[in-house]
Amino acid sequence: MEKTAQSESAKLAKPAKSASRRPLEGVRVIDLTKIVAGPNATRMLATMGAEVIRVEWHDQRALDLLRGVQPKAPGEKADSLNRSGLFNNINPGKYGITLNMSLPQGRELFKRLIAKASVLCENYSPGQMDRWELGYDTLRKINPGLIYLQISGMGKSGTYNEYLSVGPTAQALSGLTHMSGLPEPMPPAGWGYSYLNHSTGYYGAMHVMMALLSRRRTGRGCYIDLSQTEVGLMVSGTATLEAQLTGKPTERYGNRMHSADWAPHGAYPCRGSDEWITIAVQTDEQWQAFVAEIGSPDWARDARFRTAAGRKANEDNLDRLITEFTKSEDRYDLMHRLQKRSVPAGVVQKSVDRYLRDPQLKERGAFVPLPHSEIGTWPIEDFPAKFQNMPVEVGGLPGRAAPCMGEDNDAVYRDVLGLTPEEIAQLREDWII
Amino acid sequence: MNTEAALSAALDGTVIIESGDERGEFAGVLLASFGAEVIKLEGRQGSYSRRLGPFASSISATSTSLSQPDPEQSLCFWRYNLGKKSVSLEVDHPGARDVLGRLGQRADVIIDSGEAADVDRRLRLYREMQASNPRLIVCTITPFGLDGPYRDFTMTDLTQLAMGGVMASCGYDPRSDGIYDTPPIAPGMWQAYHIACEYAVIAITAALNYRELRELTGEGDCGDCIDVSIHEAVSTCTEVALPSYIYNEKVVQRQTGRHAGVGRTPPWLRRTKDGRYVKAFLFWDGRDVRVITEMLNEAGIEHDLESGAYRELAERSPSEAHAHFSALIDTLVASMTAEEVFHRAQAKGLLWASVRFPEENIDDPHFQARGTFQSIRQPGLGRDLSYPVSVATDGRQRMTAFRRGVPHLGEHTQEVLRQAGFNDAEISALAVQGAI
Question: What is the DSSP string of A153-170?
Fold first, then answer.
């Protein structure tokens, strides 16, 4: 079993939704994360069966800004902290408590929680935990088996350890922004969202679970100083290798495949407003099938396009001619026709398409309806895999979507710390929880 | 090879067999960085990724031809197969059955990737292997998973990023009339596969934890079959796009160099003195105005942000004030290099960064201090290359690293087969049959 104080600690009373064990059974995670990167890491851990306890407070330093952002669930209480759809989607399967860490009494309660935990995840601004005297060196004395995941934009060690960052900052510095878009003189298109918030969450969960495996062998916890920018570098493909060999800066290639003779390879406009289809021909057989599907027009049988090298060398012309064909086509109809001939093609699906018009996501159950205590039941994006044996549920131990602010104060302070109802009431009175 | 890293032994003793194509290779790399022994099964002609460029042998400072397919020189293969062993084995050859069976006896995990029909066919064999090794965890990575109406679609990284919704959020602003005249953009190579493989590693690591938990509690061996869908993985990775529709029936629109949104937002990208870009992210609050004012003063740029006229404009017409403020930031940024802007803005507490080329980070003292890159000898190249290998430190050194470099095709065939119990005569017979 877990070689930590946690294994002997009390568990939150809860209905056992799954009869069998969960992968991270017995793992308690104290979650001090905000926005998306950190909460996405703890989302993964909750999905795998960890008992994740989100710790929040009402002041700006501790409040998760995501609770206030659009989209909000429709209805009354527009200024409620419990109605954000994005927060709900990023935080299912977790318990939620409030704790005023600015007060010494709050920090003492926090230490008691740490003593009964396996993992701490946090992504506060640089130095905040140290200012509260809650850095790893302090907490490991309380719980030597603690795994402490600290997520930041650039890392807590190194020369940029005081620099501030959000997802777009890390994307810029890592090179991901530069690499996305049409070639110069067009500017970078970058990423239209904080991709590195998602990815950093994946790496955070991965590292914590590796540390859990390691701890079973060594009995030791560890400190993980995770850098969002380094995650960006990890997913920068072959760019850094190529640049070391060529001595030239990394370029952008739009939607084209720069390292193979794949053409056509791009997004082409279809009938309707801002409707597109992607087509990616990798072989001569696929090209011939594509030509047959579009009715073998004279231009497509031009000698320039007969070979992969020829199509690549004449890609501008090829794209122009294909656009003339696709612009009057229905995007889904064309995709299905090309797929019937085994030509790689996919509609550029918007959110509405994925939610309403994607039979694959529907059949595989990609959206799980989960209850929320204030806004009712809403669809939550599921973990994107099916498991034969393991019980893996995005609703986690509580079997619900995100917690309301402080929703589980009574249960956590009673069941985890053993406080009496009177003690809990006094903590509320004193503005500590 | 320096492999000092805090979690690089987390998977010590864990044997992973990797089959399939380029879709699952990144999962094997990540697991190798945590210390797993990853045995890559390649056909006798080598993996498909060996035929994808760019190729080191054709790259020089004066040549940009990247299309000469030398299977030992593919940078794509190097990047996505670092740290693995290579076994030459035709997995669909009848003679491979016994090899896989014996390899499966000592394996903890099998990763297979490719078109669903191909993977499904091999999955039958893997299930037989699980019958004799019930601890075996099988993870498949396919375009849409192993069931569903799109299961047999033929896909690439590009078409997955389209179907999964990433491209709809990435690209350029529309024209002033609201019409888009540029396409949605797939932001970089292999990102659909990165996302799917990261999920696969999370699932595999959870399964390893689950297996250990059951073994520790005496509940017996417990392998698993994990069916990862690239489409579903990509679709979970679009941030606010889906919630915006689900909760408010709003569809986000792509914008240049910044987040897609349900409404237009001010630009983030600004051009610098050296022709580069910075991402100048602002909250448009009083603090931003104060800091920008300080920076303008320090740069000696005339402005009126401290004047009554500007304050009056901000009250009367916030949009005009924003436009004026934004133009001053353009002037400020244009007076410095991208790196100067980055460091000066950060010194003032602004969340800004230079839009770097990824390779510019290799020699950056920050990443050198953290051990982000590992120098690895490239056989046949006569030099080392720096690979990004770690996303974290333990406060002193990097968390993950690689114990071996990139394998030659079939470099470990003999070694791995002997470990699996094959003698020289049997190995020779497999070669004659064309299985290895």
Answer: SS-SSSTTTT----HHHH
HSE-up of residue A380 (Cα within 13 Å, Cβ side): 27
Q: Measuring CA to CA, which residue among B72, B5, B133, B92 is closest to residue B389?
A: B5
Q: Which of A429, A428, A4 is nearest to A215 (CA)?
A: A4
Residue B16 is given by DSSP the state E
| Alpha-carbon distance A66 to nearest alpha carbon in chain B (angstroms) | 11
Closest Cβ–Cβ partner in A73, A222, A345 for B159: A345
Contact A207 B399 (CB under 8 A): yes
Chain centroid to Cα B307, Å, comes to 49
pTM over 0.90: yes
| B372 touches A at CB < 8 Å | yes
What crossing angle do the helices spanning A284-293 and A331-340 adopt, rounded to 10°? 130
Option in A164, A382, A384 nearest B349 (CB)? A164
Q: Which pLDDT does position B60 carry in this prediction?
A: 52
Closest partner residue to A261 (CB to CB) among B67, B172, B254 is: B67
Query: Tens digits of per-residue pLDDT, A276-323?
Result: 999 999 999 999 999 999 999 999 999 999 999 999 999 999 999 999
Shortest alpha-carbon distance between residue B423 and chain A (Å): 34
How far CA A128 is from CA of A133, A162, B207, B304, B323, in Å, comes to 9, 11, 35, 36, 35
Q: Tens of pLDDT along A108-165?
A: 999 999 999 999 999 988 789 999 999 999 999 999 999 999 999 999 999 999 999 9
Chain B, 47-76: which have a CB under 8 Å from a chain A CB? 51-54, 56, 59-61, 64, 66-67, 75-76
Query: How far is B106 from chain A, CA to nearest CA, in Å?
Result: 19
Alpha-carbon distance of A396 to B338, in angstroms, equals 45
Q: Where are the alpha helices (DSSP H) in A175-194?
A: 176-179
Confidence at residue A38, expressed as pLDDT on a 0 to 100 scale: 97
Instruction: Please classify residue B344 by burial: count the beta carbons closer than 10 Å to its beta carbon, then call 0-12 exposed, 13-18 middle and 19+ buried.
Output: middle
What are the structure tokens assigned to B110, written together? 């099998």
Query: Cβ of B246 and A238 within 8 Å?
Result: no
Look at residue B188 and give its three-state secondary structure: coil
Minimum Cα–Cα distance from B249: chain A residue: A352
Interval B307-354: pLDDT, tens = 999 999 999 999 899 899 999 999 999 999 999 999 999 999 999 999
Give B55's strand partners. Answer: B74
Q: Which residues contact B215 (CB under 8 A, 6 or more apart)?
A: B221, B222
ipTM: 0.96
- The three state secondary structure string of B269-305 is EEECCCCCEEECCCCCCHHHHHHHHHHHHHHCCCCCC
Best probe of the B interface among A18, A154, A245, A331, by most B CBs < 10 A, is A245
Of A193, A266, A385, the CB nearest to B228: A385
The helix (H) or strand (E) run that includes residue B353 is strand B353-354
Closest residue on chain A to B278 (Cα): A172
Structure tokens at A24: 């991270």
Residues whose CB falls within 8 Å of the CB of residue A107, separated by 6 or more in sequence, listed in order: A101, A132, A133, A134
pLDDT (average), residues B43-52: 94
The answer to whether the CB of B230 falls within 8 A of the CB of B139 is no
| Dihedral angle sign, alpha carbons of residues A72, A74, A78, A80 | negative
Which of chain A's residues have a Cβ under 8 Å away from the Cβ of B223? 389
Q: Which residues pair with A121 in a beta bridge?
A: A31, A149
The predicted-structure confidence for A251-267, as pLDDT tens digits, reads as follows: 999 999 998 999 999 99
Given CB atoms, is B376 within the 8 Å cutoff of chain A? Answer: no
A341-359: per-residue pLDDT in tens? 999 999 999 999 999 999 9
Residues present in chain B in total: 436
